[in-house]
Amino acid sequence: MQKTIILGAGLSGVSLAYFTRKTSPIIFEKTGVSGGRVESIIENNHSIETGAQFFSIDEPNLVALLNKIKLDSQLAPLKLDPFSVLHEGKLIAFKNKQFSKDFSEESKELKRFYNLTDELLSKAYTEEDFPKELIQKDFVSWYKNSVGDKALWLLESVIYAITFSRASKQSALYGLTVCETFFQTCYTLKNGMRTLISKLLQESKAQLKTDAKATKIVIDDGKAVSLSINEKGKIQEIETSNQNIASGLPAPEILKIISDGKLRKELSKIEYNGCAVHVFETPKQMLGNDAGILVTDAGLKPSVILNEPNYFNFSSNKGIIGVLVPYKDRNDYSKEDVILALDLIVPNIGKKLKEIKTSYWDYGLPVHNYGLVKVQEKLAEMEYENFHLVGDYLGLPSLDACVESAKKASLKIMRGK
Ligand SMILES: Cc1cc2nc3c(=O)[nH]c(=O)nc-3n(C[C@H](O)[C@H](O)[C@H](O)COP(=O)(O)OP(=O)(O)OC[C@H]3O[C@@H](n4cnc5c(N)ncnc54)[C@H](O)[C@@H]3O)c2cc1C
To answer: What's this model's pTM, rounded to 2 decimal places?
Structure first.
């Protein structure tokens, strides 16, 4: 039976390995580890996520997969509400989906927004009367038109924190989906999101080759004919005419190695935003009890501060603070901004921080706008006999989109067997 060759050991690639496990898949991964943007570090027996943090129980593809590989028993609810927002230099508490009484107008507006979100998203998922303006309009103009402008700053902050991009750049549909997840109970995995990657690799029995970077894919006449791999400095050319190849790489990474002009044109239109995630240790827990998660104003850096002892029920006296800083370009930001924002919350905290780890994600998430939807339509029309794309840029960017795209690609691959 033909093998499936998969490029990239992120969630998209390893999900595809799982769905095509009957074909003895082989995965080439350029770094020394699997997981890609799913990355957990273990401190004091607790896991801290420096990549993907959480998901919604309503994400159908991801949740079905968790059930299938028996990780459903590992689901851990993550209540992000209450949290605090650093807005115009002041820390404002937010609890049970509303502000304190000083902000009653904002709270009323948010209530209208939550109701509208439920109604619109249920239409979007059932596809009856799907309001097209949700993908044609950006979140900010849609919100101003349909809801108001008093509480917009909070939603802009949440969207910026979760998507690393301004709400005015994202489709209304993506903004609504992100807010719906954030304001509901979210879920993570008890022993870290990485468990998902490890279990999929184990169940798929895929052969994982690390330090093996794909450097060229030649497509000829609608067919992938060769693949070059640089494995620990040794170049190998693989003849692929009789095998299925799938890319689980972010779009800008495939663009670097694929020869096909039509595909290159579409992939080059996909815009990404990045972020850095800092993990700091403090001598004791330094943020207040309400500070499970803090979101700063969309314009401010950083955008998310996770007070890990609360966030993950740490039983340690020490504090662990995770800070997420969106950027367009890695040269755009400095660590001083992070310290300044933390100092606004707890004076002089900056001096007490010990850095444990920083992860940089230059391709953090693709922007979901009408342009991306058009690219997705074009990509869906392009059929290659033995070449497949999987990744978050093929749906509403999220872990669920990775699994959904892997499932779709696996159906084509298995049908061809
Ligand atoms: C900080 C952060 C927080 C996030 N939080 C959430 C969240 O809470 N919920 C959510 O749903 N989503 C979240 N996301 C998004 C989510 O992590 C991604 O959508 C998902 O992990 C993408 O998986 P992927 O397999 O498509 O790509 P990746 O995880 O990027 O995997 C691609 C893999 O390909 C490898 N690779 C690249 N080039 C080559 C090459 N030439 N040859 C071989 N291998 C190569 C890379 O090393 C990598 O391992 C977050 C993202 C970030 C960065």
So the answer is: 0.95
